[in-house]
Design a protein that fits this description.
Chain lengths: 402, 85
């Protein structure tokens, strides 16, 4: 489908990447810079086409690498211009050094991340190893379930990032292929509504020869810890902001996906599945089937992984006997990243549910309803007091290949 | 002093960072040998050598003791000596 064939505000079937590109364009970025990498490429191709056609008044900077792309948007935002970049997998790793600098210098770039696994062995299939590896950089990370949420989360991301109390880069993480290359019905936001929702970018400091500032200054052991603490405080403040922005978005656009988390059949659930990304859709279908069998199963969907919604997860897991955490990544030699965070946030309570850490879908291994059932069966056993092994449950691993 | 967001600060803020304390070798300029050619001042990466009156002076508040001035001096007028405090 060509951009000219869809009218804003209209619901139409479109590729996820195109829905994302349209959202970015509606936010009126002044600078876009990116380097192509599968499966992110369509997003920036669409944006480049809009610029070339004169439909989007932005500078599109072609660069020699993802490191340069991240550096270009770093510089653009430092001059007070709204900027966007997107990448995947190895490209995100190549951006890493710049991303830490962006967060530390408090530059609110919005970054689209089309999740793809990391080499080696080389693969273009989706998992969340790439964005999880950036979790400590100071970025705010939002994970989305479908194309509509990917479209909407990009619009929310600019408002969260540029809030004077936040000023942090925001990464919108969307499973590669499953969102970027899938065609789904999406309702596009209108320019008028986005303009009323997203105020112009007015940073407190910007690079200007007539009023000079130093960006990227040096500090020593007497101050660095305080600067880290300030970024951490901005992340903590982000918890409240992300929820407020989600509600403000609902008011303007009529769509709401939860704040930091969303839940499904969670109130009376004895077993809770905790996940983020597209797998959430499969889990909801599996829950419908298991609920029909009388099993008390529910879902916690993480929308914001950084800041980590510890308080919300504590509230949502009250009364549950077991929580199965589905990690689409692994900290090799330990556990999935989300399970480690969940375990810490649920510890030090009077009664905490058992936790089943699960490794799922690495390198695009399909996560089926049967996969979800196998997780729930183990979690139910744990909820009945069965001692679980210390190692994670590797779901649908093929031991015959080993 | 309250810290600024993102460590973004006004211009010339690095003046507060007295890098002379990093020095382990100290350049000593001999005015008798110096021909006032100014090559040391051109090469100094921290702008710590500059003309003053009829001679050149080294600013030890910021000089890190890298030794580039001594290396580049065509007359051998600058000697690097171990800094002992």
């Amino acid at each position: 489908m060509k951009p000219s064939e869809v009218r804003e505000g209209q619901r139409a079937v479109m590729e996820g990447s195109w829905a994302v590109a349209q959202a970015v364009a509606l936010c009126r970025p002044g600078v876009i810079s990116a380097y192509p990498i599968t499966p992110q490429t369509h997003i920036v191709e669409d944006l480049a086409q809009m610029v070339a056609d004169g439909d989007l008044a932005a500078e599109y900077l072609r660069v020699d690498s993802e490191f340069s792309a991240a550096s270009a948007v770093y510089g653009a935002v430092a001059t007070g211009v709204r900027a966007y970049t997107a990448s995947s997998s190895q490209g995100l790793l190549l951006m890493t050094e710049v991303l830490y600098n962006m967060a530390g210098t408090r530059l609110p770039v919005v970054i689209g991340a089309a999740n793809r696994t990391l080499s080696a062995p080389i693969s273009i299939q989706p998992d969340q190893q790439d964005t999880i590896s950036l979790r400590d950089s100071g970025l705010i990370q939002l994970y989305v379930e479908d194309s509509q949420e990917a479209h909407d989360a990009h619009i929310q991301a600019f408002r969260i990032a540029e809030d004077p109390e936040i000023l942090l880069p925001v990464m919108v993480c969307m499973d590669g292929w499953l969102i970027t290359h899938t065609f789904e019905p999406v309702e596009l936001a209108s320019q008028e509504a986005v303009d009323s929702f997203l105020p112009p970018f007015k940073p407190p400091y910007s690079l200007d020869p007539t009023c000079p500032f130093t960006f990227g200054s040096f500090t020593d052991d007497d101050k660095l810890m305080e600067f880290r603490y300030m970024v951490h405080q901005a992340q903590q403040k982000g918890k409240e902001k992300i929820e407020q922005v989600a509600r403000a978005f609902e008011k303007t656009f009529g769509r709401y996906y939860g704040g930091l988390i969303d839940t499904y059949c969670a109130e009376d659930a004895e077993v809770l599945l905790l996940a983020m990304g597209t797998v959430v859709g499969t889990i909801k279908d599996a829950i419908d089937l298991m609920r029909a069998e009388g099993r008390k199963v529910g879902l916690i969907k993480i929308r914001a992984y950084r800041p980590f919604p510890a308080e919300r997860i504590r509230e949502a897991t009250k009364g549950a006997k077991a929580v199965a955490v589905l990690d689409n990544n692994i900290s090799l030699g330990a556990y999935g990243a989300v399970a480690s965070d969940v375990a810490l946030c649920l510890s030090n309570q009077i009664s905490a549910p058992a936790i089943l850490p699960c490794i799922v879908g690495l390198g695009g291994r399909e996560i089926t309803i049967d996969s979800i059932r196998s997780i729930v069966e183990r979690a139910e056993q744990m909820g009945k007091g069965r001692i679980a092994p210390a190692e994670s449950f590797w779901v649908d691993l093929h031991p015959e290949l080993l | 002093m309250k810290l600024t967001i993102g460590a973004i600060c006004g211009p010339a803020g690095s003046k507060a960072n007295r890098t002379g304390s990093w020095r382990s070798y100290r350049p000593i300029l001999d005015p008798e040998v110096c021909t006032d050619c100014g090559i040391c001042a051109i090469f100094c990466p921290d702008s710590c050598v500059f003309p003053e009156g009829e001679n050149y002076r080294i600013d030890y508040t910021y000089c890190k003791g890298c030794g580039i001035c001594a290396e580049e001096c065509p007359s051998g007028a600058i000697e690097m000596i171990v800094e002992e405090k």
